[in-house]
User: Fold this.
Amino acid sequence: MPLTTTRELFAKALKGKYAIGAFNVNNMELVQAIVEACEEEKAPLILQISKGARQYANPVYLKKLIEAAVSLSNIPIAVHLDHGDSFELCKQCIDEGFTSVMIDASYEPFDKNVEITRRVVEYAHKHNCVVEAELGHLVGVQFDEGEEGGGFSKSGHYTDPDEAVKFVKLTGCDSLAVAIGNSHGAYKFKGDQRLDLERLKAIKKALMDAGLGDYPLVLHGASSVPQYLVDEINKYGGKIVDARGVPEADIEVARRLGCTKVNIDTDLRLALTAGIRKVLWEKPSEIDPRKYLGPARAMVKELVRHKVRNVLCCAGHAFD
Ligand code: G3H
Ligand code: 13P
Ligand code: ZN
Assistant:
């Protein structure tokens, strides 16, 4: 099956009230684990590649790995640039055949973010590529004590519903990554682990009221940091202390409120690391990479099966 665009995937996901998992890939084992899991669960899939992944693996290797996975599977797969930080990088990926790119100019002031995003949208749409943009800062509650000295921001860091409407109208972007207390990595919260779901609801409503319809929103930083993986890593010589992710219950609410694309990277890293550590701890003389990467790949696969089946609820929707 040829690569799919996220436009098609989102339209079906919004109708069916499920979310598509966007999983980061850097190497062969991750590509295999994710694609095999989604194939077995009959789940539509977004494979995403960051600038760092391109630097690590080389864009040609990643492209060929994905081509191989696509040729061996039947499910719809979109290939997406994660956190593209410039027009030039987005253009490069569009020219290489990515079906979706993210331009993340959220580090710029509003007007500059609009200008850069618009430029990417114009180029992408001419080449049948879909664009995700971002408004607000993914600082997370841990780094943002809010205006009243605790909890969520009243303004500033997080996505403002009215600004979101203005931004989407001015840029023509196809989906929007929102900042609602989410952040990247394994250390997302100090106290309460929760997203500002009221803000998410308000953003969705503002877009709907402005005539933009059931507009696709994207949740970055959606790893849950499962305790069993942290425990496994620590049991076999790791040191992960005070790591906290987004509760699966919050992801489920976000999905029902219209977060159509849910980004997961950290949980894959935890699963792969746990698998490698266990083998090397139990068999310190092991030197065959297949003997530790194989079990680690199996752990990633199990994790992805759980996500698509029980959290994103996209299992069984590959052929909607
Ligand atoms: O958003 C960040 C993703 O987890 C990708 O991370 O830039 O280290 O590849 P990376
Ligand atoms: P996590 O770090 O929570 O996995 O988020 C990944 C992400 O947002 C990639 O863009
Ligand atoms: Zn992200």
